[in-house]
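Final report, results section. Input specification for complex C-07:
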Amino acid sequence: MADKFDVIVIGAGPGGYVAAIRAAQLGLKTACVEKWVNKEGKTVHGGTCLNVGCIPSKALLETSHKFVEARDHYNEIGIEVGEPTPNVAKMHEFKEQVIAKNVGGISALFKANGVTALEGSGKVLSSKQVEVTGHDGEKATYEADNIVIASGSVPVEIPPTPLTEGLIVNSTGALEFEEVPKRLGVIGAGVIGLELGSVWNRLGSEVTMLEAMDTFLPMVDKDIAKETQKLLKKQGLDIRLGTRVTGSEIKDNEVVVKYADAEGEKEITFDKLIVCVGRRPYTEALLGEDAGVNLDERGFIFVDDQCRTSVPGVYAIGDCVRGQMLAHKASEEGMMVADIIAGHKAEMNYDAIPCVIYTSPEVAWVGMTEQDAKAAGIEVKTGSFPFSANGRALANNAAEGSAKVIADAETDRILGMHIVSQHAGELIAQGVIAMEFGSSAEDIALTCYAHPSTSEAIHEAALAVDGHAIHMANRKKRK
Ligand code: FAD
Ligand code: AMP
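Structure output:
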């Protein structure tokens, strides 16, 4: 038997690495097992998020956005740059540098905090033992008082469109296109599909998005989703709702996709196809036969509200358990579990987790939509404010979108905030903090905001809940 630890974490994504660092900070002897190997054959930390998810996608979204700014908008504000051309190889180089800095940072944090990094694949055995199979096939077994499983998720594949090297790809392949595809298909107009579709649309692809559902972004407030759909359409994203992909064929290095919509069966041909139909929990080779850790009916590791599995002392967090598949949700669960292991009281507020789609403008929300609240029988009052009436947004030449605050009609407590705008992903933190503190719309309305700032649109939306926005024709007389 090799070393014994207080905590062994399996997986070093944003769930696992945060759990490991927090556990070590709390004085627990901690190890973290990671099997991810990069293109150079080196074990890297950071998981999906840093290697093929949040971070590389944001690098490409930022570079492609800057390209569009230079191509379409600099001349509007008095900067003549001629006709810019995208250098895709250089963009990937930048993206790789960003990944390297991030993953290197996690390894350095492990060292600084005294987390033992174990390289290889971890398997939970009975009696809280973890077997680690190194990249050379060597096995070692470690004992732990507590185990935290943070094995993450992988992209869902669907039978109509099996992945085909370089032609039909998942999100990871879509971050690697060496050239801008002329005709690009995207299956799924969810968060990841919209972001990757936007990247390549900005760089020149004709992008067609095939989405089975009839509703666009059903988790977003209807007013904000409708405005987003209009704005993305204006950018050239051809989003086809009620369109279910039923098959595909590779012909002459092209992808012929079969789909069904309200009018019947149809076909469309692409140069590349991205399959973005969601992610599933990853638990392969993770649990020994007598580990005793149960999965639920959808393959997620079954946990309670505080991420305890069916085995005492074994916890699971992040994408491999129920809840939203988001990096920050995984990290918060990681901190909660480390605190619980160290004997502290800890819990998560699953009602105040922000979600962001990093399109341009960004879409960000927290809490209920107006429709959710009404469906739950809650009487609401809402306030909306357009960024076209915000001085800073106009000065930024980015005045598209609006912010909406949803509050309980009786108590004025904020139930949700939904925004589409430049930097909505930053602005939404105000809604999260407000909800976390149980604020009313009036609390925001009575707060002094810096001028000029795009945050003032949130202030105005909160004022508008009672019909008293300043920079908008008022609906009600002030009492
Ligand atoms: P992961 O990040 O998947 O990490 C799990 C780790 O466990 C991996 O490193 C894996 O190698 C390792 N592992 C698994 N099994 C074993 C084993 N048996 N032994 C050893 N190691 C193992 N989320 C956001 O919040 N914001 C975004 O902007 C965002 N953008 C995204 C963009 C894309 C293209 C994708 C694909 C995802 C995006 N996500 C985003 C989702 C986000 O990446 C995930 O929610 C997050 O990474 C989940 O963290 P995790 O720690 O649970 O799992
Ligand atoms: P998300 O869960 O946000 O990643 O989004 C995935 C999207 O893919 C969902 O909106 C699904 O409706 C959509 N989807 C899944 N299967 C298909 C299919 N066969 N054809 C078109 N869209 C699909």
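Residues 88-113 form the longest helix (26 residues). The domain at 3-155+280-348 is CATH 3.50.50.60 (FAD/NAD(P)-binding domain). This concludes the modelling results for the funded period.
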